[in-house]
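Supplementary Methods, section 5.1.

A reviewer requested that the exact input to the structure prediction be made available. We therefore reproduce it here, unchanged from the version used in the analyses.
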Amino acid sequence: MLGIKKELVPYEGWHLEALMGYLRPLEQGVYEKINKDYRAWHKMIMADTPEPVTILVDGKPVLVGGVSMLWEGVGESWMIGSQYFRENYIFITKQAIKYMNYIIRKYKLRRLQAITKAGNPELAKYAQFLNFEYEGELRGYGMDGSNQYMFSRVA
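The structure derived from this sequence is encoded token-by-token as follows.
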């Protein structure tokens, strides 16, 4: 019996298009805010993320992620997840930590930050598991006007 093939690969545009069919509810809300145009999301990804990546499971994208460079020495981590996140949680987490450590070293980041929706303890716990520390709440910061939590890893 063959095992399931899981891999981290460089992002390609078709990955995001495929992912649109099975987004997590959180990402589905963002997708609706950009008028269900995955090309707008793709454009944002390519604008300031030098090395976006995709987690593939048996050739199917289950997560797209990256680090957007805000300015020299500062990046912001992001993920667009699917409904298959939970069942691939361990693999995704290991790959996310390796990827972020690689980006921090390669781009000499002194600060890597991540933003999650406020009021979602699962997302906050996950950010902390990825070695981010809670910094505070950003009121009205979300695309929908929602409050967001700021986390960071500072060198």
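DSSP finds five helices and seven strands in the chain. These observations are discussed further in the main text.
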